[in-house]
Design goal:
The chain is of the alpha+beta class and about 240 residues long. The protein has 2 domains: about 70 residues, Helix Hairpins (Orthogonal Bundle), CATH 1.10.287.130; about 160 residues, Heat Shock Protein 90 (2-Layer Sandwich), CATH 3.30.565. The chain contains 8 helices and 7 strands. The strands form 2 sheets. Strands 2-4-5-7-6 form a 5-stranded mixed sheet, with helices on one face. The protein has a two-stranded antiparallel sheet with strand order 1-3. β6 and β7 form a beta hairpin. About 30% of the residues are buried.
């Protein structure tokens, strides 16, 4: 009975955070549209800046809704016959494009070091894109200004696994005890809360679920000076 009450409270907290995170950017988009309609934006460059910001806010909402939908439908929502060839550099670049504007405002560029080697796997492109977008979103939100995010991708000869390594610098050093909890449903670290007060705690738990259901693994390492490394492994 006590465990059921805890789960109910967790569900309500997640739902409240989720609604808050969706409503806030939608209010921002509504405000931008009002300003455009009333002619309050000065000049073409300012208008484009506003539109790009509104687009980024809508993309944030889409990511949140996808996360909730995946969580609700579970693994049964994705059929095996949806699996197809995924060109890894392509899906990385496509995922990074969603964060160009937000990254630019913080001086953070998401860079794929090797765009030439066209490593491929069989899987669900939308789900892999969702994982990458959740990770990139974390780096843009919690990354240190002026420090780029770098990505390496390769096929490990000994295991035949695809390895994607994503490196960046966090605004605050991640506590080692909290590091173990990343990927737990509803968990948000104290440093994340310092930067952004509200959050759903869905993103990384969904990344973990998606990758594990495709026969892979994901883990995070933290080093000195706020260094953070995400490692994603998937069958090639």
């Amino acid at each position: 009975m006590e465990n059921e009450e805890k789960m109910d409270n967790l569900d309500l907290t997640l739902l409240a955070n989720f609604v808050h995170q969706v409503v806030n950017p939608l209010n921002g988009v509504a405000g931008t549209l009002d300003n455009l309609a009333n002619g309050l934006n000065e000049g073409e460059s300012r208008r484009l800046q506003r539109l790009n910001a509104a687009r980024a806010q809508l993309e944030q909402c889409i990511t949140l809704i996808r996360n909730l939908a995946f969580l609700a439908q579970g693994s049964g929502g994705v059929a095996d016959d949806d699996r197809r060839k995924i060109v890894i550099p392509q899906v990385i670049i496509e995922s990074a494009m969603f964060f160009q504007e937000d990254g630019k405002s913080k001086g953070i560029e998401i860079k794929l070091n090797d765009r030439v080697t066209q490593n491929t796997i069989n899987g669900h492109p939308e789900l892999i894109r969702q994982v990458l977008m959740n990770i990139f979103d974390n780096f843009i939100k919690y990354g240190k200004k002026g420090h780029n995010v770098e990505i390496d991708q390769r096929i490990q000869k000994s295991s035949g696994m695809l390895i994607i390594e994503i490196r960046g610098i966090s605004e605050y050093r991640i506590d080692q005890d909290e590091l173990k909890k990343i990927g737990t449903l509803g968990f948000r670290g104290q440093n994340a809360k310092k930067i952004i007060a509200s959050g759903s705690g869905l993103g990384m738990s969904i990344c973990k679920k998606i990758i594990e259901e495709q026969g892979g693994s994901i883990y995070v390492e933290a080093g000195a000076m706020g260094k953070v490394l995400f490692v994603v492994k998937l069958p090639a």
